[in-house]
Amino acid sequence: MIEREVEIVNRLGLHARAAAKLVQCASGFKSRVTLVRDSEDVDAKSILGILLLAASQGSFLTIRCDGVDENEALNSISQLISDRFCEES
Amino acid sequence: MSESGTMQIVQGMGVAGGIAIGKAVSISTRVGEVFRIPLAENEVGAEVGRLREAVDHAQGEMGKTRIRASQQVGDELAAIFDAHVLLLNDPAFLGRVEERIRRDRINAEWAVWKTAKELDEQFSHIDDTYLRERSEDLSDVSRHVLRSLQGIAHHELSEIGDDLIIVADDLTPSDAVRLGRKRVVGFAIESGGRTSHTTIIARSLNLPAVVGLAGVTQRITDEVPVILDGETGCLILHPTVEVLTEYRQRKAVLMRKERKLLGTRELSAVTRDGVRVQLMANIDLPEEVRDVVRFGAEGIGLYRSEFLYIEKSPDLPTEEEHYLLYRGIVEAAAPHPAIIRTYDLGGRKLAREMMDTREDNPVLGLRGIRLTLARRELFRPQLRGLFRAGLHGDLWIMLPMVSTLEEIRDFRAYSEEVMAELTRDGVPFRRDVKLGSMIEVPAAAMIADALATEVDFFSIGTNDLIQYSLAVDRNNEHVAHLYQPLHPAILRMLRFVIDSAHLAGIEVSLCGEMAADPRHAAVLVGLGLRRLSVSPRLVPMIKSVIRELDTRTLADLVRSCLDLRTARAVDEHLGQALSGPPEPLEGKVSR
Questions:
Q1: A33, A61, B260, B303: which could form a disulfide with A44 (CB 3.0–4.6 Å)?
Q2: Has A49 been annotated as catalytic?
Q3: How high is the ipTM of this complex?
Q4: Letter string b/e over residues B573-585, b meaning 16 or more CB atoms within 10 A of that residue's CB
């Protein structure tokens, strides 16, 4: 199992479209992917969980991956977040 | 039978007669469009299946929306629908809904609504405004599922086993249609008035209904034994054995009475002087066609087609559905005609996607034939179905809310178009179905002579004709007393319409409630009407009235009424002539 802390940098935070992209990305991997914020953790393959996490701009999350492709999963998801979900220039 | 609990009687107002004995099903706590309906244990599995089917359907719909959106607003924004599709698949949502169905043994609609509400509550604690509002996405998704669920046949209440009495705080016509089948034997409703659509439906299903039962949904739990008395307007919870026995006897007496009235079925509606009056039936639901024959009506004087539309909601009925329904109706009416009214939507009757805008005064707005002509494409399946069904019997098409001659002409032109299309498609249909105009707008009544030269028949709709002519809403208690069917203005208008039809040699019938009042029916026959259409159950009663009439004296009587100046004067004049003993017929000259 590996994990990494990331900052949510896009303006609107983990809103619906961003959350959808995150779920689609996480669902592409076999590993179990969890997002942790404060003491709360949610399944990154459940959009409802991510929306309820309510991570706005500037909040910090821990991405935790566990499984055969955990490295790829962690890198892809971190990249997506730092790229602001490819939605802002 | 009182099981647990002591007997209680709740008094309301009986709006549809009869007695029902059974178990209560509370579909109270209505929220928006959602009911809570308890399930029997063996229904739970099927209900979960129904939920999954609805989710699949909703998913398909959203997929389509996403494609349309990406074409219209671009892929980036359309991605919002990806979120919706994901939400729909999310076990965190659906799993909870399924669990709720199983745990609480309730219907899928309620489970979806309740789960969404719980999640909404969680969202409301989020600090970030933008993210908090994502609960809207969730509401949108649950609305989609609810819509899909409503398109999928509701679980059959029949599984519960006993005769059921629906206890509800309110019922819309579409709910009543959906629920009023199978094992449902009566409706007990908190709100509601005498003329509500639900009442009409209860009557047409031949089920007792009691309204105005204040607070009853709070007092009832499911499967409590109840008696519903549509005659005295009360609901009895936990009846004692004695009360139950008494009601069983009363029910038997009522049924005997009804059978006796049915005995007149073979008799014809002929006046004492040998004039035949054709008594037809007004029906709303396909199920009622059996009542047409059962109560001895000769044909169908009004079939209100909008109930098909309501029932298929949220989908639009297909051409095939129209065709099969109308075919069944004309075949049931044979050898007599069946008059089918095209959709009378708009006004206060729902017309969802057909209406683009809200109207300040819908009753005077885009409705009836106006809506048909403005949204032709939506009516095409209905018209095609009608022309095709015409092959199977004597089908007449009637247009509602006609106020100008151009509407008839436009409709004919459109019909030609539709028929040309059917020919092109090689679909068999009947070209010469009769086309008639409903006479319910005063303007139509006053140009009846002109209209009569361009239509094949008239059907006078007195309910609206009277309301529009006298500018009175009969449901408004402050002016209801001004709703006077015998107002000289109405009688003059009726005379002109009937005379115009006779002069032009076209058929004329009347399908308003006026025909169902014994004294008014006599006036109508006196005015020269030979075709009346009433609710099937009232046919035997009106028939017995007609068999007592004599058109020779009646014509003079009505002629003298036309010279009177007030409704009261007419009423008194009629009262003296009609309430006395039937006049002995000198010489019995009837043929």
A1: A33
A2: no
A3: 0.75
A4: bbeebbeeeeeee
